[in-house]
UniProtKB/TrEMBL annotation, chains A, B:
Keyword Transcription: yes
Ranges where the HTH tetR-type domain occurs: 8-68
UniProt organism field: Compostibacillus humi
Keyword vocabulary terms for this entry: DNA-binding, Repressor, Transcription, Transcription regulation
GO molecular function (one): DNA binding
SUPFAM superfamilies for this protein: Homeodomain-like, Tetracyclin repressor-like, C-terminal domain
Regions recorded as binding DNA: 31-50
Protein name, as recorded: HTH-type transcriptional regulator PksA
């Protein structure tokens, strides 16, 4: 079914054009017109793929999520020891290279745009961290009497706070500092 | 010098109108025209106080900082024991009531708007946390061999991550959960 593949590919290409426009001009520049121009499509052609701006935005947001998820799957499938794997998983949620920085900057713009729409803004990170902590706890790798609910909120806030700070100031915290902070934190959780 | 007082008061009133417009319509609605309307001033009168939109934005941002600082000063001057005072100081940086929620929501909009302008976005919170940790460490209240630099980044990220999450979803983390997370974190730092 080559036509369907093309259709999906074209949609992804439009989503990537959307990210580019957002990175260059912020949400206020991310009009259907500007996105069509960036994607080198006519307005009519773009409307063929996405009938509304909201629909396009949601598709573009989802694609950011999928990219992050793919990076995480690679780490989960690796044969790192549990503590290192956990730290490495958390590092996938931080803007440590150009690709992930762009992802997270776009995400922050979307967050601002969709403020108040809790369901749409759920990036699945809290759940991912909670699942990981539960898994480690089940395997008796974490300290006794750990409160998974509190530790999930704490680690989730820590990770997003680091990401936010690095997006606000591209020089700090450095990758090395973010790694040290995560390592320190994870060490206080592990036995 | 009643004239100067009036001038400053009027500027503050305009800054407050700016917040209101941002809260209602986001940065894209925060035009000089809309702000003048909200402040019930003519465009000419508004221009008398702020010649450019940037100048107005910066004044409004600064006023948010000052409001937070005033809340912190009250806590510092209180006679709470050190650990409770420290937790209470950190809680001033979280959107736990309507006033602080509005402050932080406005701040997040400004952050997005001024992304890339590191100096402008420095809210002084990192420095405040670092100073507090140094003070506590000097008074031998923190665990031995604590790394102030790492702990500053860690706590700064934790606080801003909690604030970001609560602004993204006004139902969670709850005040009670944020209090528990901070208490847990601070307890791991204290002797």
């Amino acid at each position: 079914m080559p036509k369907i593949v093309d259709h999906e590919k074209r949609k992804e290409m439009i989503a990537e054009a959307t990210w580019q426009v957002i990175l260059k001009q912020g949400m206020k520049g991310a009009t259907v017109r500007n996105i069509a121009k960036e994607a080198q499509l006519s307005l009519g052609a773009l409307r063929h793929y996405f009938s509304t701006q909201e629909e396009l935005y949601m598709f573009a947001m989802n694609l950011v999520k999928e990219r992050v998820l793919k990076r995480i799957e690679k780490i989960v499938a690796s044969d790192l020891p549990p503590k290192e794997k956990f730290i490495s998983f958390l590092e996938q949620l931080l803007p440590m290279d150009e690709e992930s920085r762009a992802d997270m900057e776009v995400w922050l713009h979307f967050t601002n745009y969709f403020l108040g729409n809790e369901e749409l803004l759920d990036d699945g990170i809290r759940e991912g961290i909670e699942n990981a902590l539960c898994f480690l706890d089940c395997h008796q790798l974490l300290k006794d009497n750990i409160d998974i609910e509190i530790e999930t909120e704490r680690l989730y806030a820590l990770v997003d706070g680091l990401a936010l700070h690095r997006i606000m100031d591209k020089n700090r915290p450095t990758n090395e500092m973010m790694h040290q902070v995560l390592t320190k934190h994870v060490e206080t959780l592990f036995k």
